[in-house]
Predict the 3D structure of the following.
Amino acid sequence: MAKLLDGKITLVTGGGSGIGRATALAFSREGAKVLVADVIVEAAQETLKMINQVGGEGVVAKVDVSQSKEVEAMVDQLISTYGRIHCAFNNAGIGGGWGFTAKCSEEEWDRVMSINLKGVWLCMKYEIPQMLQQGGGSIVNTASVAGLVGMLGTPAYVASKHGVIGITRAAAVEYATSGIRINAVCPGIIRTPMIGRRLEKKPESEATYVSMEPMGRLGTAEEIAEAVVWLCSDAASFVTGHAMAVDGGLVAR
């Protein structure tokens, strides 16, 4: 049976844990070679080790997506290693602190925006020229259900994820006739290390999270990965500019 990404060259930022790791593994399972990028290089190396253990292939890059030169170097490394980039999953992001809009500090605002929004833009800035040169490609950016609706107490995060959807749609329209498809995935409340750290501090909040999900449970990183694989694959050949909610029905309420 043919694999969805057989022979493809792919890139995953934030690939050292959570959704990024699950997607890197799913890319490999579907026949792709994977550059696993993360600001914590040891975590990226662990993901690559997992890929190698099941017969996959890839390389590792250390990257802070808020830094232009590091993002450029990451893309250059992939091209020098494999010559092309078919699929990019621009996933690296942070949650940010808690507090209403008037309580959000300028430092917090800048920190969240530089990683979650500027980081996605920088990745596309360096991925797109290569895709134009080779005649096409597919990009998926990680947004959030917080990019589709308003949520209390995390204004910088909500704004950054709305921005990710905005730049995804803008770029999708710009490059639609160039063979480049650009979409966003919008996870609901997913059981990842980010959520895990919150639950460690406030275990009682899990019931609140579960109550927000019509399916009555948290999602898994693997469920998001499956959506990303599909969006990157030729099965989604007529899909671009789409913000796909993978959220257990959260935004349907």
